[in-house]
Amino acid sequence: MRGRDLTGRGIATFQRAAKADGADKSGLTALTYATMANFATDAAVAVALANTLFFSAATAESKMNVALYLLITIAPFAVIAPLVGPLLDRLQRGRRLALASSFAARGILAVLLIFNFDTWALYPLALVMLVLSKSFAVLKSAVTPRVLPPDIDLVRTNARLTVFGLIGGTIGAGAIAAGVAWAAGSIGALWFAAVLAAGGAYLSLRIPSWVEVTEGEVPATLSYHGDDTATEVISRDRAATVKPSKRRQPLGRTVVTGLWGNGTIRVLTGFITLYIAFVAKSRTEHEPLQQALMLGLVGAAAAIGNFSGNATGARLQLGRPTLIVLRCTIAVTVVSIAAAFADSLWMAALATLVAAAASALAKVSLDATIQQDLPEESVASAFGRSETVLQLSWVIGGAFGVMLPTEFWIGFTVISAILALGLAQTVMSYRGHSLLPGLGGNRPVHADQEVPGATGSMRIHQPTGKNTP
């Protein structure tokens, strides 16, 4: 009776927290439950495949196979990524269905994995599930602004979703999945993942229908054509006279700087996620228990960093969020270089802690920048664009984590060189320049909307682009 009483109180406390600040009426509570299901499904799949995909795949031959399958998965994702944002802009009715479909597909793949657990199909099936998980994140980012309660801003809403996902999904469901795997093996954990995916599909369809309403929205675009004679740049006053479907909202310099910084950090987090697993297995002098302890150390560092970064970001007064992103990018680059010189597990764990905290804090800062710098009608589209870029950056980092040798100094030296390039591009974007024309900060801080297809004679207003963040 005491156990039932405590359980009931715990559930009631959780429901109050999920429905607080008007989240139940706005639809945020329903999205919170779906997000928790996404975290939970990922955790169950990770537990199910721990002994197979990571621990048993680190020999040279198997690692080449995993690298091949990962590249096969990255190739279509790299092609699709630039299309996800525009597709969301045109998806007027069906975003809830798209969220549910990402769960349904993972549930089907989990069942397929059960019957192909000891075959070559394990790797492509598992990696497709990874891509579907990232696709859910992209879709969720586009839906979140539409379920925003009146008393919470977008930054704290995103941090809130992440915290609920980590506690209720990753930690809670991960612990249950571990117990199921201990009792019934990896197959049992996969069945649990399939059940979670089915529940996630149902919860996605429970999100209120008003998230489908996109009337009056202006699509955001990563490119900037302010100096193009075939593009008309219009002021915000003039924009009211042009149909939203005809307009495009370029991302300003601060948002682009935030994207470059966050993308650089995500490369490191993706790299560490897969790289440490292969390093643990490749150290043949370690027993399975020691290998598990190595992964547990790094996993604990990632969890602590992620939680602390989100908690800190939710409480900071983000007066200059772009500067926070820049400092986070510098921090992860420095700690990666230190890990290359130290060549030790402890330094790799510290790099994981810093990278996870910086990733969470930089993402919160990017959210704040988007909300502050873009007009309300373009915020949802901008989130879809930004999340696509960040997920693709994570997958690219994961590819390096699979392909690079398992000596710490080699792996972290290569990834540090990549991070240094990303940091250079972030700094140049912050200062209004770019290593890549059209994809950096050589644009105004707050770009005015554009009308594609116009002629130079139709130009109404041309921003100078000389202002600084």
Question: Could you explain the architecture of this structure?
Answer:
With 469 residues, the protein is an all-alpha fold. The chain folds into two domains: 1-214, Growth Hormone, Chain: A (Up-down Bundle); 216-469, MFS general substrate transporter like domains (Growth Hormone, Chain: A, Up-down Bundle), CATH 1.20.1250. The protein has helices spanning 2-19, 23-26, 28-54, 60-90, 95-115, 122-143, 154-205, 236-239, 253-282, 288-315, 321-342, 345-373, 379-403, 408-430; strands at 220-221, 231-234, 249-250, 449-452. The strands form two sheets. Strands 1-3 form a two-stranded parallel ribbon. The chain has a two-stranded antiparallel sheet with strand order 2-4. α4 packs parallel to α6 and α5 packs antiparallel against α6. The longest helix is centred in the middle third of the chain and has 52 residues, at 154-205. The termini are far apart.
List keywords for this structure.
Growth Hormone, Chain: A, two-stranded parallel ribbon, two-stranded antiparallel ribbon, 14 helices, 72% helix, globular
Set down the secondary structure blueprint.
Elements: H1 2-19, H2 23-26, H3 28-54, H4 60-90, H5 95-115, H6 122-143, H7 154-205, E1 220-221, E2 231-234, H8 236-239, E3 249-250, H9 253-282, H10 288-315, H11 321-342, H12 345-373, H13 379-403, H14 408-430, E4 449-452
Parallel strand pairs: 1-3
Antiparallel strand pairs: 2-4
